[in-house]
């Protein structure tokens, strides 16, 4: 059969113009649909820096299928068509069947009517192409993304209106809500990505099949998105769609005028909502105020990129092998991203033998030569060095409590043999304090907490009224390697309690005093001290400006009598707490100053 007969078939006065898809409306429509499918797939994969399949591959495959549809067939092809039609269901389940050549049957028809058998085979061909191009793309052949809690402290799972404690390893499903209390945190593995919830954060899983959709209802959350996944976070009227792999989103964070604040850490995020539709590029931030008109997008400042919350999450991601985009500079040294296995290249049916591909050498005929072939010299095999075994990091119990304007960190005695010193590390969030030492950017190793005494058990860190911080206790060996670490704990300084008026009553040779007892935590109380001064109008034991003091040991006490020499004094009572190191003593409550004359 001549080449012309392979591309067109003449019967009577009817010419079947299948050699040019544009001359046939149905073929043209099929061609357009295949082109759109290929473009959609390529766009979905551009976000991770790769295009799969290439434009050339998709175009070549489309042209080959259309050419095949125009070819006449013999008995063997008709049999192949019958097998293809009968096995269509199985073929759709296996990409291996996509490589099978499609041989449509061509029958006589008028040029205006497309026969059903030809259309059926072309439709099957389209299904094969879509399956090949769309395999593992967004939403095609994709089941629900698995979600599991991997790190939890003080978090609740709300399912079907019932609340329970969220446990490590728990599987989550669509409709589940996770809420973290003010002293907790939670990490969820979502498919190949993760979600880190800071203290006070709350989210709900709205969709997990194909696309991932999460409703963020409060707090601060770090979103690490699996490359190639459609991932959207809703915050009321606003939708944030990831065009990359990492961003931080906060709702109503204290100390910020913004109702919503996002930082695009790696790649971009699309923002859509009332009066706004904008792309937030990598390294930029978006803030939205109380009204829809109050929004702004622009490059993030160095102070914003130095936020301990961002740095802490970047450190965790970098340690896990992820690229951290714009925060790489803040971490100080480049960290390679996770290795990605390239998609295998499937040879096309019409590709000639010997065609070279990138990274391969084309086949060629060997050239005879009289020169002897020199055998390659074997390279010596290097003896691998044994990997040193790093002992696992142990744990140490610790607690943190806000007392007055101070955070008091207490810990259990460590009985391990490798103990050399102990240090308290402070950060702005629970994820800001890895167990490694020395701590990274945005963290503080509290120098005056450093102790070589195994008997030390507490430390006081001055914060200021209403301020909060997270703390972690690290036990180090002689080489400053962490051998044990506590969980990260949060403290908020409540301020100095008011013990009301100090009421002294002079008696012969002394004083009978009364006051309002300290009602704070028992963990913040050691004893009262009644202090006085004959010259200072504002005596204080903490300030050191006093002439004398009297100790009262029970927190419930509200009256006390003691001897005092005759004279006139300024007098008050103070509630105190001590720590082994740091701020000492710690003032947790005080009364007003009274003037008294002892006869």
Write a compact overview of the structure shown.
16% of the residues lie in helices and 34% in strands. It has 599 residues and is α+β, with helices and mostly antiparallel strands.
How would you portray this structure in words?
By secondary structure, the chain is α+β, with helices and mostly antiparallel strands. It has 4 domains: 3-134, no CATH class; 147-331, Jelly Rolls, CATH 2.60.120; 394-492, Immunoglobulins (Immunoglobulin-like, Sandwich); 497-598, Immunoglobulin-like (Sandwich), CATH 2.60.40.10. Helix content is 16%, strand content 34%. It has 9 helices and 36 strands. The chain has a 15-stranded mixed β-sheet that branches. Strands 18, 21, 22, 24, 25 and 26 form a 6-stranded mixed β-sheet that branches. Strands 27, 30, 31, 33, 35 and 36 form a 6-stranded mixed β-sheet that branches. A hairpin with a 5-residue loop joins strand 24 (468-476) and strand 25. Helix 2 (25-46) packs parallel to helix 6. The longest helix is centred in the N-terminal third of the chain and has 22 residues, at 25-46. The protein is elongated and about 120 Å long.
């Amino acid at each position: 059969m001549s080449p012309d007969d392979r591309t067109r078939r003449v019967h009577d006065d009817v010419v079947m113009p299948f050699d040019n898809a544009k001359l046939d409306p149905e073929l043209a429509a099929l061609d357009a649909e295949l082109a759109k499918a290929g473009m959609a797939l390529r766009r979905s994969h551009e976000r991770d820096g790769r295009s799969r399949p290439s434009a050339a591959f998709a175009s070549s495959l489309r042209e080959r299928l259309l050419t095949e549809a125009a070819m006449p067939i013999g008995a063997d092809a008709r049999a192949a068509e019958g097998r293809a039609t009968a096995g269509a269901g199985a073929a759709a389940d296996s990409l291996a069947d996509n490589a099978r050549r499609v041989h449509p049957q061509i029958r006589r028809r008028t040029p205006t009517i497309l026969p059903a058998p030809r259309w059926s085979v072309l439709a099957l061909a389209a299904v094969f192409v879509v399956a090949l191009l769309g395999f593992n793309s967004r939403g095609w052949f994709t089941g629900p993304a698995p979600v599991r809690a991997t790190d939890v402290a003080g978090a609740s799972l709300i399912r079907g209106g019932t609340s329970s404690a969220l446990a490590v390893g728990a599987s989550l499903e669509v409709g589940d809500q996770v809420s973290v209390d003010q002293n907790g945190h939670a990490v969820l593995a979502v498919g190949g990505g993760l979600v880190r919830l800071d203290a006070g954060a709350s989210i709900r899983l709205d969709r997990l099949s194909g696309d991932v959709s999460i409703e963020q209802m409060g707090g601060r959350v770090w979103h690490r998105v699996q490359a190639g996944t459609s991932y959207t976070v809703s915050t009321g009227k606003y939708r944030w769609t990831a065009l990359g792999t990492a961003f931080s989103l906060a709702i109503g964070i204290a100390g910020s005028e913004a109702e919503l604040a996002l930082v695009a850490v790696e790649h971009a995020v699309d923002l859509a909502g009332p009066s706004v539709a904008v792309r937030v590029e990598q390294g930029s931030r978006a803030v939205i105020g109380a009204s829809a008109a109050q929004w702004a997008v622009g490059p993030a400042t160095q102070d914003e990129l130095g936020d301990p919350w961002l740095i802490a999450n970047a450190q965790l991601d970098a340690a896990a092998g992820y690229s951290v985009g714009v925060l790489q500079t803040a971490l100080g040294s480049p960290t390679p991203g996770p290795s990605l296995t390239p998609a295998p290249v499937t040879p096309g049916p019409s590709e000639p033998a010997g065609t070279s591909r990138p990274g391969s050498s084309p086949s060629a005929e060997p050239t005879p030569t009289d020169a002897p072939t020199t055998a390659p010299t074997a390279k010596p095999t290097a003896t691998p060095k044994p990997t040193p075994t790093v002992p696992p990091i142990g744990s140490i119990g610790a607690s943190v409590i806000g007392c007055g304007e101070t955070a008091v960190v207490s810990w259990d005695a460590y009985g391990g043999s490798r103990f050399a010193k102990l240090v308290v590390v402070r950060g702005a969030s629970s994820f800001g304090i890895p167990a490694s030492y020395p701590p990274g950017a945005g963290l503080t190793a509290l120098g005056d907490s450093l102790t070589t005494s195994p008997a030390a058990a507490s430390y006081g860190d001055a914060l200021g009224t209403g301020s909060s911080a997270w703390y972690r206790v690290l036990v180090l060996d002689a080489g400053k390697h962490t051998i044990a670490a506590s969980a990260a704990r949060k403290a908020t300084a409540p301020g100095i309690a008011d013990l009301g008026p100090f009421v002294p009553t002079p008696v012969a040779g002394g004083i009978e005093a009364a006051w309002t007892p300290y009602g704070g935590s028992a963990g913040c109380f050691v004893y009262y001290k009644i202090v006085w001064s004959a010259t200072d109008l504002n005596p204080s034991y903490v300030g050191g400006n006093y002439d004398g003091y009297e100790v009262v040991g029970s927190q419930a006490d509200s009256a006390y009598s003691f001897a005092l020499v005759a004279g006139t004094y300024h007098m008050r009572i103070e509630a105190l707490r001590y720590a082994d190191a740091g701020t000492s003593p710690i003032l947790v409550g005080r009364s007003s100053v009274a003037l008294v004359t002892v006869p």
